[in-house]
């Protein structure tokens, strides 16, 4: 993020604390989320409309509001992020329109890219997470994509049936350490993996101050800036050469 964007983020945090009301950013790319986390602001949480979000917003809390309360409120009323269910009404592209097709149709309305989060698919239907403030504009203005007519409906985020697709993969490691899993998952040498962790490029569950020797734990979510993310699922066995076989689920 450039200095102007960093200053804006810090201002949002200060306003929430000083004036006593919740503030929020637009959707941030994964690397921008990492940049905000690196600021170590005490009153920030991140949400994306679903658990495995790629793009999310930074939400800044006033003193009286806990993270748990804020998350519960958002889950109930979707004041910040809502989900747009977009279906194709027949035609030769029904079920075949891509992420780019739906995003392009939304942006053609004049909506800024940073107002749109993840786009997931389930049975040919697109589920688009957007800032709630622009939902009426999309619901009333979006009528077609690639010359196909669309039906558009705002639904609660919790009603979205689409899930992020992960690919399961088994990897051999000499021990259950973070640096070895990162090296194997992203095709790095052990020394390269160590440097990325020590350089703050690897995040584990949103934490960046971690050690290369951090033990792997089931369910651990690990991301490497610029490479991707995966979930550590656990040990599945041993190789003939005595290495431990672990299973990970890589985000596609």
| Average pLDDT, all residues | 92
Share in β-strands: 25-35%
CATH superfamily of the largest domain: RNA-binding S4 domain
Low-confidence stretches: none
At CATH level 2, the architecture of the largest domain is: Roll
Q: Helicity level, as a percent range? A: 25-40%
Total helices: the number is 7
Q: How many domain regions?
A: 3
Strand arrangement in the largest pleated sheet: 5-6-4-8-7
Following the backbone from N to C, one meets helices and strands in this order, namely: HEHEEHEHEEHEEEHHEEEE
Secondary structure: number of strands: 13
Give the class-level CATH name of the largest domain.
Alpha Beta
Fill in the CATH topology of the largest domain: Structural Genomics Hypothetical 15.5 Kd Protein In mrcA-pckA Intergenic Region, Chain A
Structural class, from helix and strand content? alpha+beta
Topology:
Elements: H1 3-19, E1 23-28, H2 30-37, E2 44-47, E3 56-60, H3 67-77, E4 81-88, H4 99-107, E5 116-122, E6 125-131, H5 135-141, E7 144-145, E8 148-155, E9 166-173, H6 178-185, H7 190-198, E10 202-204, E11 221-224, E12 228-238, E13 244-251
Antiparallel strand pairs: 1-3, 2-3, 4-6, 4-8, 5-6, 7-8, 9-13, 10-11, 11-12, 12-13
Descriptive keywords:
five-stranded antiparallel beta sheet; 252 residues; Ribosomal Protein S8, Chain: A, domain 1; 32% strand; Alpha-Beta Plaits; alpha+beta; single chain; 3 domains; Structural Genomics Hypothetical 15.5 Kd Protein In mrcA-pckA Intergenic Region, Chain A
